[in-house]
Amino acid sequence: MSESITHGLPSSGMATAFPKDPAGPTGARKWSIRLVHGALAGMITLVVVGIPTDIIDTPVFGREVPVRIWELPVLLATALLTAAWFGIDKPASQADRTSTPAALAVVSTFFAVGCPVCNKLVLLALGTSGALGLWAPIQPILAGVSLTMLAGAVVYRWRKRDCTAASCGARQ
């Protein structure tokens, strides 16, 4: 019988739910940890992008231009792809461990779904008429580019994940 963690309680001979594993979590527990990390990352992305852009309506932020029909699906797709990216096991080699494309895609989504005249950087660069006439038509294109980048980052991470016989092997 394997040695178990007794959580500071005297050992009564009964098995506990958490066997000691010096190599770290494996199997179903490792997958559940990844699932929780992915779900948390997706929810954080949804809140961090959705609230300041006022897609998620709160009294804290306002929006001059109403939410356009494509912005909520882009926000939800970004949250799901971010959750998938965080849920996939990290690549084994340090050279393949990069989060730059995924982070850049989420930041691009923030600019893509934001109100065109509420963005101070765009207003400073283009003015109000430029924000509505130049920036607003570019935003759906930026949304498509950011979703493509994030999907590419998810696929890349999936292909480079640490998949050994112990972590991804077929059950016998």
List the helices and strands and how they pair.
Elements: H1 27-50, H2 71-87, H3 100-113, H4 120-160, H5 165-168
Helix pairs in contact: 1-2, 2-3, 2-4, 3-4
Would you kindly provide a written description of the structure presented here, covering whatever features stand out?
The protein has 172 residues and is mostly helical. Helix content is 58%, strand content 0%. It contains five helices and no strands. Helix 1 runs antiparallel to helix 2 (71-87). The protein is elongated, with a radius of gyration of 22 Å. Mean pLDDT is 81; it is low at 1-9.
Count of strand segments: 0
**Low-confidence runs:** 1-9
Largest sheet: none
What percent of the residues sit in helical stretches (DSSP H or I)? 55-70%
Give the amount of beta strand, in percent: under 5%
Order of helices and strands: HHHHH
Shape: elongated
End-to-end gap: 22 Å
Based on CA atoms alone, the radius of gyration comes out at 22 Å
Class of secondary structure makeup: mainly alpha
Q: Give the number of helices.
A: 5
pLDDT averaged over residues: 81
List the defining traits of the structure above:
mainly alpha, 5 helices, disordered N terminus
Would you summarize the structure shown here?
With 172 residues, the chain is mainly alpha-helical.
